[in-house]
Amino acid sequence: MNLATWSIRNPIPAVLLFIMLSFAGLRGFQQLSIQSLPDLDLPGIIIQLSQPGAAPAQLETEVARKVENSIATLSGLKHIRTSITDGLVQISAEFVLEKKLSDALTETKDAVDRVRSDLPTSVQQPSVSAVVVGGVPTLTYAIASSKLDEEALSWYVDDTVGKTLSGVAGLGRFERLGGVQREVQVEVDPVRMASLGVTATDVSRALKQVQQESSGGRGNLGLAEQSLRTLATVRQASELAAMPIALGNGRDVRLEQVATVRDTVAERTQVALLDGKPVIGFNVYRAKGHDETRVAEGVQQALQRLQEADPSISVTLISGSVDYALEQYEGSMTMLYEGALLAVLVVWWFLRDWRATLVSASALPLSILPTFAVMHWLGFSLNMLTLLALAIVVGILVDDAIVEIENIARHVQQGKTVRQAAADAVDEIALAVIATTLTLVAVFMPTALMNGITGMFFKQFGWTAVVAVLASLLVARLLTPVLAVFLLTDRHHPATPDGRLMQAYLQMVRWTLTQRKTTLGLATLFFVVACGMVPMIPAGFVPASDRGYTLVHFELPPGSSITDASRVAEAVRVALKPVAGIDHLFTAVGSGHIADGALIRAGEVREGSLTLTLQERDQRPSQTEIEQAVRQALRDVAGARFSLGVGGPGEKMSLILSSENAPALKASAQALERDLRSIGTLSNITSTASLERPEIVIRPDWQRAAELGITAELIGETVRIATSGDFDTQLAKLNLDNRQLGIRVRMADAARRDLQVLSNLRIKSSNGLVPLSSVAELSLAGGSAQLNRYDRRRFVTVNAELGGMSLGAALAAAKALPAVKNMPSGVKLIETGDAEMMEEMAGGFGFAMLTGLLCVFCVLVLLFKDFFQPLTILSAIPLSLGGAFIALLITGGELNIPSMIGLIMLMGIVTKNSILLVEYALAARRERGLSRHDALVDACHKRARPIIMTTVAMIAGMLPIALGFGSDASFRQPMAIAVIGGLLSSTLLSLLVVPVVFTYVDGLKQGLGRLSRQGKVSVAGAN
Asked: What pTM value is reported for the model?
């Protein structure tokens, strides 16, 4: 007794099981988080080392290389990326996927600690942290106030907004954009200091010693114990002016004698504007594993409470990934509903029986709901890939039920009762249904088990599809027979004669069986021609998406001020104002940004970005058209180089040039950058080749300095404090009620702009104060503005926006350029970013397809207990691939991740159709003794209808996706096009070609059998 007949005799356990599974699925669906894409739990560590004032070249030698060499000894390390800017070294250590993040973090901290004593003493305590948030902000807001000035609003954002949002569950990081920092500035006068024999270092150190609170000691007054505390602080900045500063040798001066004290703001390093008006912005980052929509809802509620408490505050949402994630979720769910409805309508159109249609349709929810329960149990989320898996299997889920219902209806037409017809039909079709389902499992399973980042990306996709398909098998074998028995009637419908279409089809089958060579030759020609079209199909990674916002990042030459950057940002805003479809323009100058993956590059005042918030999709052109118009508008803005895009996949091509020969590396990068401008639609071609920045170089006169007892360290410290102030950790502090302000001692801005004033800075020597120019030479020179390193070698990244060009075509054209072919031997070209992912994806999917093919063959061999007929079943796969290639070529599609998913899906679908034909032909020969020809014609007659029904149902389910209805369907559309093209070709051709292949394979099997028998007879005769 098999499972299906058992459920017919014992319906209550089957019904109860699916009631429980449905409730579990509904509960799981409520608990599933909504995300754009699955979280990639990559073991990545970020190390930050700060040495304020140090030049990039100095940091590379004294800090970066030492830390890199120590980290390089760690096990499981994959890549090291280093970004070096003024005073800051950021190192990103990427480990293999098998490495535990906790182990990677601990070992990296130990590696940094090993070289801590070898680093300069002025290097601050290193920061070593795991990458726990994504690179793209979840939400970006702009906040303004009608009564707070910029400093007060900046503190409101840091204190009130930051603290409030930190209580939102799932929030990983909060970051302010723009604004200022309150600070007490003590602007020393070089002339007055020289007349009194004082240096800026003396003033700063003396303030640190005087302006402080210290505790220690115990008192015992009145038989009670008291703690002792020394309070030597002022309550407000104005009191500092009269404070006497001890200078040693019994001398002291009042601070106002050498300096001017101001309670003001620190030197501006960031600017934020919304549509040209000053605001303060902030980014909110989601912690990994949390629901984007729930985090956004919590943030929105918290901000609403703040606005209710202070109506003068206005908050504007600028951009974020939440709207896109929610749109993709709603669009995918709509596609799921539409696909299910169309599949059910197709079933009704073929069967014309609402009862049979209801039984078939019940397989959809009863297969999907248990899938939600398993997804929640496995820790998955409702993202683009898991919803895509459900959307593509929606036609498959009803397949098994269609086949069984169609077979039951056929048996009822033979005069059997519904119960008897159901028992006979499900028993007859058992092998075919199990074989088709396990074939799909064998196809999808390798995608869930792929290695590398691609495997992590598609793990949730593969397992979701596998679970849904297995659930559909459980429904078909347990519940569909039960529902058929209770819902279908015993009315005997007379068998209808074959229509013209069926008669024409059977006539074609008979012709192909008599013209086998011609049929096989034409099928082979079709496949060869289709494969010949593959080079004409561009290769890509992921289609560019329409996210509702985009970014314009700009960079000015080194040495540019924040005023220059703000002026360029305003020019960009004015130039983009006429572009249709833009709702808001948010400007952020001096903010950090993502560079080279997860590495967050510190902001520089010469850089900035404009976030373009787009109007609703139905009220504007496509994002691609808007970005093209933006590129045209940016050509009129001079003085900066631009890049466009949010950093998502499918936007740009990145190439790395790596070498230890700095001049050769720079020359090669410039040559590649120049040659890339001649390729297709590539635009905004930029490189990270280090630009020369202006520097004031101080070279001590060693002989003169030694005679006066002056060291290079003393010169550097004196100049640093006089021009920019001491390190933040060494500053004196002013304690307020709710915060602590730094007291920075330095010269006024006007003095820093005068080289003569810098030359006359006084240095403390053994003979008193001497001017800097007497012991050193000051000159103007150039130095690197930024250095980048990849795997302990200097590198330059050359980026180019694709502008609609496929990534594969752009890569091929780039590799054919003279700049690449004639590259010096010491310079190495490395594909990174989307290019690296595309190569890994192609290899992963190619291996998954081969593995799936082998698994399908093994499954068929085990089920049919035959090594030959599985070859017949697999013969339909080349016919489906040919149709998919033609469909992609006609529609202008690419061979990318979505279309690769479609090809893998096709392998399982077309194999199902072949199984139905072959299994019935084998059963007809075995049970009814029909000839091979008659068995094949009878199989085509009996199985053509369910094959066409399932195919049309799947095409109907895919059609809304292929047409791009609803939300942004850029990711799903290529997959649907490939599947529909493959289904059309494989169904039309396999119904004719598979019977012919069956005859050849069966003839080969019989021929080998005769040879085997003859060999046995010969051996027996010899004996």
From this structure: 0.76
